[in-house]
UniProtKB/TrEMBL annotation:
Cofactor: Mg(2+)
Record-linked InterPro entries: G_ENGB_dom (IPR030393), GTP-bd (IPR006073), GTP-bd_ribosome_bio_YsxC (IPR019987), P-loop_NTPase (IPR027417), Small_GTP-bd (IPR005225)
UniProt keywords, alphabetically: Cell cycle, Cell division, GTP-binding, Magnesium, Metal-binding, Nucleotide-binding, Septation
Cross-referenced SUPFAM superfamilies: P-loop containing nucleoside triphosphate hydrolases (SSF52540)
Name of the protein: Probable GTP-binding protein EngB
Pfam families: MMR_HSR1
GO molecular function: GTP binding; metal ion binding
Location of the EngB-type G domain: 44-221
Classification via NCBIfam families: GTPase_YsxC, small_GTP
PROSITE patterns: G_ENGB (PS51706)
Keyword check for Plastid: no
GO CC terms: cytosol
Length: 221
């Protein structure tokens, strides 16, 4: 087997996935919630943030990544939970995951929407240990205008992000391929977006190993 080229890259990715599997199969604990920046934890470890519209499957994906059933809990009323939630991974801690409040507030009052914008904008602009944001897109619907608004906010904050399709098992293969291609096309239009799009299903656990590896790679960058 060649020491360079595709074979070497394949071995690197396999090793990265295995290290990520071992990391996430170990200690994962909820750290704290922060309704405002004054309550956020000290910037001690590299952080990976999760963002997405309400009902995009963010909590389910975090649970799948960490191998836990309910470490991340979905809000009963979409758009109502306006807190940043931190989880520690590793012993000692090597990564912190940040669950950002969902957006797309169909039922939320304007005051709540503005509170969300202020909290998220200030967090993104001032968090030096934030290595990457994972912007989740529902594969059944593709990129929506509210997702583009979030991408613009990330672009303006100069925060690098990956687009991650969720609920990939809910649509047919040909439809998924079309959504994947369209999402990659959108990513290419945004300066802070990572060019590749990850495809996942928390229910079927497809794409989870690759996503774990991406999280570990980003955290170590």
């Amino acid at each position: 087997m060649s020491a360079t080229g595709p074979d070497a890259e394949g071995l690197r990715l396999m090793a990265l996935e295995e290290r990520a599997r071992q990391l996430f199969s170990g200690r994962v604990e909820f750290l704290k919630s922060a309704p405002s920046l004054q309550f956020i934890p000290d910037p001690e470890e590299p952080e990976i943030a999760f963002a997405g519209r309400s009902n995009v499957g963010k909590s389910s994906l975090i649970n799948a990544i960490t191998g836990r059933k309910s470490i991340a809990r979905a809000s009963v009323t979409p758009g109502r939970t306006q807190e940043l939630n931190w989880f520690e991974v590793g012993n000692p801690t090597s990564i912190r995951l940040v669950d950002m409040p969902g957006y797309g507030f169909a039922k939320a009052p304007p005051k709540v929407v503005e509170q969300w914008r202020r909290l998220v904008r200030d967090f993104l602009r001032g968090r030096t240990v934030l290595k990457r944001t994972l912007l989740l897109i529902d594969a059944r619907h593709g990129v929506k205008p509210v997702d583009v608004e979030m991408m613009q906010m990330l672009d303006e904050a100069a925060v690098g992000y990956r687009l991650v399709l969720t609920k990939a098992d809910k649509i047919k293969a040909e439809e998924l391929a079309a959504v994947h291609a369209a999402t990659e096309a959108v990513a290419r239009k945004h300066i802070a977006a990572y060019p590749g799009v990850l495809v996942t299903s928390a229910e079927k656990r497809s794409g989870i190993a690759a996503l774990r590896a991406a999280i570990l790679e980003d955290a170590e960058t």
